Amino acid sequence: MKRYLLSCLVIITVIAISGAYFFRNYWEHRYDELITRQARVYRLDERLVWSLIYEETWFRDNAVGDAGEVGLMQVTPLVAREWAKETGLREFERQTSENVVGFLSDPERNIQVGCWYLEKVRESYRGEPAETAMMLAAFNAGPSRVEEWSRGTDVTKLPESDFVSRIAIQSTKSYVSSILERYRSDKSILTK
Q1: Residue 29 domain-assigned (yes or no)
Q2: Over the stretch 27-56, which tens digit does the pLDDT of each residue have?
Q3: pTM of the model
């Protein structure tokens, strides 16, 4: 009887571990195609976008932040309306003015708008040694904070590690560091 119970316990454990592995793999990679498509449209590294989504919401498309950010990339309603206006498509403008949360809850729209905004904030830091860290910090805390943290220094010579050390908001510093570490060290991102 003990042998039977032990065998059952081993089998259940193996099934649980296998199930957890396959569920996690599915969960983390179910939006890979959307991420890749939208990242390429905005000339972003899809592995960086994937890492940002991992950090922001761990791929929960229905996530809503404390400040009203919505969806996978935690896009604010203001950014969505700005994107819609810039597209010049009245239908997007109407949708974002009538039900911006519903609009941003669609994973494809959320990733599209999030990538657009990420590229938009990146424009100010393109070519700088700390470009990626500055872009992520601007996405999280706003471009004005990035300017504050890089004030008094020549950003053309500011190494990424020095910029990260200047980030005065601990949650933003952790956010940027975590994304950069995952992005640069996890070679399995977007490889099934």
Answers
A1: yes
A2: 899 999 999 999 999 999 999 999 999 999
A3: 0.88
